[in-house]
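Intended use. Records like the one below are meant for learning the mapping from a protein sequence to its folded structure. Do not use them to infer anything beyond what is encoded.
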Amino acid sequence: MKKTFLTATLCLAATGAFAQMKSVNQAFSEAKMENPNFKEARATIQQALTNPETENVAKTWYVAGFIENKAFEADQKKQLLNQKVDEKNLYNALYDNYKYYIKAVGLDTLPNEKNKVKPKYLKDIRNTLKNNHVYFWNAGGYFFNANDFKTAYKMWNVYLDIPKLGFMAPAEIKMDSTYTMIKYNAAIAAIRAEDNKLAIKCLEELKKDNYNPQDVYKLLTYEYELEKDTVNLINTLKEAVNKFGSADKDSQFMLRLINLYIYTGKSQEAIDYLKKAVEVEPENAEYWKVMGGLYYESLKDEEKAIECILKAIEIKPDYAEALGELGRIYYNRAVNFNTEISNIRDNKKYQEEKEKKVIPAFKEALPYYEKAHQLKPDENEYKIALRGIYYNLDDAENLKKIEAEMGALAQ
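Structure written out for the chain above:
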């Protein structure tokens, strides 16, 4: 009885598998007809793709891919005849063909019971993917123009991947300059899809290809900024500065790196790159002024700060901000001297020290603030400083004038 029952069970299992393979063959036959019913063929094969009896059979996935390829070809023919075609469906069929064929290859190249690999569908799959390869370029363009950037990336990525598939080697698909262009397009699609991590991955790969290098580095730094990845942002900017040097005519990478160092409190690093910047553009007054400010505020090197700012004024005599910055250094020097002597009890000695240190410092600040005020009369900082200087120099006439200006402004 047990033997009979076991035999019956085996027969039932074989019958079930046979029935499912019959569905696969039925879908296959439908797709090969002159006017296939693709809706019916797809419905039939979908059942087999999820059925335990057929989901691990190479033919099941091959037939699924075959159906999609036939649907793709049918729409292509309609296009040639100027008939209306839903391009979205056309390219989705193209992608599904690829997706199913990749799964079919994995199953078709498994060793058999004798541990030998004897694929049945590999050659046809290889030929189909080679023929369809170029259409993934078109598919990416279609979805990109439709603002479906994720799908555009997916299509272009397939275009890039097909030649690199191991089983495609005999097809000898040549990878020319078109590939780097598509890689760039795929990166742009990832950016437009707001997938920062994917965009970074694409752009890092593009760095190796040297395709539109300045644009690639520019985009990459923006992506790292969005990710708040300061470490990679700094490293990428440094790479760009070293790579492009004087070829970076707008100094976009140098300036962003310097600003980033300033923002993160790395003043010495900012100064180091400002020194490189002035080697390339020695007549850039702003570089000298910023460097002077860093020496003064961060490194507390007053003499070096004055040297740099004087260089900025030499280059650009009407540079109000540099004039005001130098005036501020001398003004602060006067205030500091005044603080130092404030504890002197002897009035005569106090006056002597004031005349010796404080007054000369105010006098040094005066012409720079006056010229800065002349260039930018509405700048309140300059007026406040001048009022302090005139007061300390006992210049009643100019003190009255500047206070009148400030009063008029307040009204």
